[in-house]
């Protein structure tokens, strides 16, 4: 009995392609590692990109250079922020000046006098200063060792924090600038490389892009509308407010309420509750007959400033394809799980997983049961895949033996989707 030998022929291995695949895996792994090390800056840059992209759509096409349009977009977005920061600094300086000119320090001295003789301490300090002016060598008698070390350490620590924040801000600026300028090129390269146009993967990225726009830009728009509503409401309340319980800086307080509405769960309560407690304390201390106004402030803040935007504005400006409760849950869990950048990363992960389960997972289970065209064209969703208003020949890469990705195109306006 003989058994015929069976020869198994293994497919030939293209060593060059295998080496290139290995290099590709290493490069992608390195990029993912760097992105994760700076994940806060990356997701913050992505957030700012989706916030500024609709502004670019309004500006682009009016200038010859797309780079100029992007620079003007970033400037237009930064100016309101600089205005709010300058306004805050002005209010702070004014408040400190009013505090210094008031008699509050006299009250503080009267309070601490039984425990600390401020008058004697100030006189001794003045005598020492006068002695040092007459004889600077007296400074050698003072031991500045530990004190100077603590001061220098604190200064270096704050300088280090400032430098670190500046570096991350610069990284965010670079990410936003080049995403705004070259997003259509990235989408076009993907569709010509590994994504089949109008396929399931293309439909997935289209819907993720649209949902991220709704989640990011929609919440910023909701914060702006909430700030305007709060500023108007508090300014009108001040018309009827008694002198003892006037709302301090009503317009500026409204802007703070709008910014606080971005914070999950607590939201505007971080601003309205302390201010309401302050007004209630002044009413009880100065004139108990006007205690009605702090109560009215709490009621108006809850109904008009908090409830109305959350129930009417947020679902409208954030779109109706995502469950509002699920999005707010992502905003809530994100900071608890990842830290400060979780407020941007968690919605991104939620959208990616949600659309994967809605588009790609059913297709994986039954490739013939899902129509990619209907998914990709749903509700007019588009990705920034087409070039802007003008593309010059120098911007289009060409290689030997291949055609360019796209010929120069003239159109009336940009095709970058909001």
Automatic annotation (TrEMBL):
GO cellular component, one term: membrane
Pfam family, one: AI-2E_transport
Membrane-protein topology: Multi-pass membrane protein
Positions of transmembrane segments: 20-49, 70-93, 155-180, 250-271, 291-309, 321-338
Compartments where found: Membrane
Protein name per Swiss-Prot or TrEMBL: Permease
Alphabetical keyword list: Membrane, Transmembrane, Transmembrane helix
Sequence segments annotated as region (Disordered): 375-418
Domain of life: Archaea
Species for this entry: Haloferax gibbonsii (strain ATCC 33959 / DSM 4427 / JCM 8863 / NBRC 102184 / NCIMB 2188 / Ma 2.38)
PANTHER family registered for this protein in UniProt: TRANSMEMBRANE PROTEIN (PTHR21716), TRANSMEMBRANE PROTEIN 245 (PTHR21716:SF4)
Key word Chloroplast present: no
UniProt lineage: Archaea, Methanobacteriati, Methanobacteriota, Stenosarchaea group, Halobacteria
Similarity remark: Belongs to the autoinducer-2 exporter (AI-2E) (TC 2.A.86) family.
Primary localization class, coarse: membrane
